[in-house]
Amino acid sequence: MIERHYFRGKLLKSFDFTLGFCMPNSKNTWEVIYTLPALDPEMEKAMIEAPFESKSDSFYFVGNKMVMHNKAEYRYEDIE
Q: Which one of 28, 41, 50, 79 has the lowest number of neighbouring Cβ atoms within 10 Å?
């Protein structure tokens, strides 16, 4: 799986995950905790002020064949 995070078309971070074998017709869980790069206050402000301009693409592969592509858009809020 490859996951990429963008803001206004600029790549912020790309992750490349390798998953182990999962038996067909089984139920599995997978948890990954990872950090995004530190953002300067100006970038954080811009991301809050531009809802849904933060996006990600997730690409899922079996062998070398892409089997699924998910896109997401994010809306961040200042919690203070």
A: 79
Q: List C-alpha distances in Å: 55 to 7, 8, 40.
A: 6, 8, 18
Amino acid at 23: M
CA distance 73 to 58: 12
Among residues 78, 73, 80, which one has the least CA distance to residue 7?
Answer: 73
- The share of the chain scoring above pLDDT 90, in percent, equals 66
Rounded to the nearest 5°, which phi and psi values hold at 55? -140, 160
Could you tell me the two tokens for 1?
A: 């799986």
Whole-angstrom Cα distance, residue 21 to residue 63?
11
Scanning the structure block, which residue is given the tokens 């062998």? 63
- The enclosing H or E element of 12 equals strand 10-16
Its pTM stands at 0.79
Give me the residue label for tokens 């869980």. Answer: 29
